[in-house]
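Entry for zinc ion complex. Fields follow.
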Amino acid sequence: MTADEAELLDAVLGHEFPGVLELREQARQVRVSPGCACGCGTLDLHVPDGMPRSSAANPVQVDMGVVDADGDLVATLLLFVHDGWLSSLEVAGWLEDPVALPRVEQLRWDLDLSLPGRPARRGAARPASDDEGAAPPSRPGWDSGGRD
Ligand SMILES: [Zn+2]
């Protein structure tokens, strides 16, 4: 596992959800191999014997969007847990081109991919069309002369 891969997995497992403690243990010993032939960054994960088994849901319930250099969403990152063991880290591209394994900086955690009522953006995500009242409405020019 490369440092980038380890950092990415650490970032995913830095979230709190049922069964994450065991997954963190597994991640210390996990080995990886290419998980897809299409050119995307999907990884297969291999946990050695003797690790604690996790009760985490499959895939883990962490919403992870992947943005490209322009800040456009290009993929969803999914961490699969098979039978209690880390199984694969899948880069599910939204476009035709396969998406490489993202760097941590490319992840967006709170893009409201599935859960309602969560903040729609943080930092420089794509231009949001689904913002609810995040910015005050721009006022017409009556205040441009300063206050008196
Ligand atoms: Zn692929």
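NOTE: The first strand starts at residue 31 and ends at 34.
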